[in-house]
Amino acid sequence: MNDNNTIELEAAAFRGLVEHLQRRTDVQNIDLMNLAGFCRNCLSKWYLSAAKERGVSVNYDQAREIVYGMAFDEWKEQYQIEATSEQKKTFEDTKPLHAAISGH
To answer: Are 65 and 12 in contact (CB under 8 A)?
Structure first.
C-alpha cells in the first residue's frame, strides 16, 4: 500500500465515523467522552488542528459544522440534553483518559 492509499482509506474511515455520529443524534457527547474519551467536539478540534497544520483556513465553528452536519447551536437545540449528575461525575473521574487534542 502506498501513502496515497493510506490517506484515502483514513479519509474514508473518518467520513464513515462522522456520518455515523450524524445519524446517532441520540448519543450525547458526554456519553462518548465518558465511554471513549472523545466526542464530536474532539473530532472537530482534530479537524481544525489538521487544517491549521496545512495552512487551510478553517475556524472552529466551521469544523464543528463539518462534524455535526449542521451548525452546532442548531444541533445543540435539537438534540442535546442536560447531563445528569452521574454523567458529570463520570466525566470528571475519567478526565485523565480523555483525548489529547492539540491546536486549541
So the answer is: no
Burial bucket for residue 40 (CB in 10 Å: 0-12, 13-18, 19+): buried
pLDDT confidence bin for 101, thresholds 50/70/90: confident
**Quick one: which H or E segment has residue 76?**
helix 72-79
Question: Do 23 and 34 meet the contact criterion of CB atoms below 8 Å apart?
Answer: no
Element (H, E) at 30: helix 29-36
How much is the average pLDDT of 63-88?
Answer: 98
* Domain 3-97 fold: SMc04008-like fold (1.10.3340)
Inform me whether the pLDDT recorded for 28 exceeds 70.
Answer: yes
**Set of cell numbers at residue 64:** 464543528
| C-alpha torsion 81→21→62→59, nearest 10 | 90
